[in-house]
Amino acid sequence: MATLAGLCACASTPVQWPSPEGQPRLPPAREINPIARPDATRPVAIVGATLIDGRGGPPVRDAVVVVRGDRIVAAGARGATEVPAGAEIVRGAGLSVLPGLIDAHFHIDGDDGLPGLSLQRGVTSLREPGNWIEAYDAARKLGPVPRLFLAGPMLDGPDPAYPESAVIVRDAAEARWAVDRLVERGASAIKVYFRLPLGTVEAIAQAAHARGVIATAHLETVDAAAAIRAGLDGIEHITSLGTALVPPREAERYRQAVIARNEARVQGRYELFRGISLGAPRTSELLRLLATRGTFVTPTLAIFERRAGDEGATETHVRGFENMMRLTGAARRAGVRVVVGSHGEVPGAERGWAYQHEMELLVESGLSPMEVLVAGTAENARFFRVDDRLGSVEPGKLADLVLVEGDPLADIRAMRRVRRVMLNGRWVASPQGD
Ligand SMILES: [Zn+2]
User: Fold this and answer.
1) Centroid of ligand 1 to alpha carbon of 153 (angstroms)
2) Ligand 1 geometric centre to CA of 123 (Å)
3) Predicted local confidence at residue 7, as pLDDT
4) Which stretches make up the Amidohydrolase-related domain (predicted)?
5) Where do the domains of the chain lie, and which CATH numbers do they carry?
6) Is it the case that residue 5 has pLDDT exceeding 50?
């Protein structure tokens, strides 16, 4: 088994992404919040930074990025890209300029200041996969927040793990009814939760696609391969793959434990993952299915992180988490569309740094820094279905940008040194880096 790569995996090979088969063609998604546009039309030129445009190609040293209004109008090497007369010049020497980061799995969890803080740390779009849309009302009144792509409450069966942020559906008809209501209220994705049986998962995926939105799931009691074949577009949490990776008798024991008692998953997932084998045919078959279908996988490693020496961490926690990281690396090597989701607040990161911490864990899992940056920008834009206007630094795209000090391709921890953030062509006030 491969050892874990260090934080600085400096190799920068071109990133290859699969061409998905059998995926529904859906319209672009819309954020629920209006995003302020710049007052003036004076162009902004970022001059001399290294451009990492989100698409996975070689970085452009000493680049020029020009923004006019809410759009990027030019991006390229300094000699080949004109700086318009009268532009506001931002000196980029020593900085890297990237697309605004996209967070596929953010929970506000009653912390109304967290969306705004995440914006200051470079997250310009987020998806909350499981809360009422009005849970963001207070956050939006506090100041600028990222573009909000909300799923509304998750759909779960009785008895739900989180009643406060779930809608209970008891059969396929109720599932279709709930999908219709959520989409009418602005949901751009539907979140399937783990008590729902396979038939209901299938009904939700079909109803979501009929309404033009994706379906993504946290699984515990439904086999991941079966759920993907039933039409899911995304898998939330690497742990959702667990029961598909162990012998059937062990998977069934876990299912029954969680069906009997939701909390059984909290310890049970580490036992399950401690026992998985990356070399087993069932593992490579599942990864091949994910890659072929183009299913997006949001590992959210940071929420599961348990290290030797952590309070209460057992050998099972530590080995189980190591295997979650190994599986994430193996998934990417197998061509699976791994994306970045922070979970909002996590044990191993200070408040507001969960996204950066997740990027570091993905590098530790064996993704190159370039793969992680693409996963958090262009690939997440495809997952959100906003790649028509977001996810890369290209002429015509909306001007969501982050400038960091140093070179995140050499060391992903540079993503913590946030110097400036632009949302829709406007600078975000007082970003804080370390
Ligand atoms: Zn979650």
Assistant:
1) 11
2) 17
3) 37
4) 97-428
5) 44-99+394-427 (2.30.40.10), 101-384 (3.20.20.140)
6) no
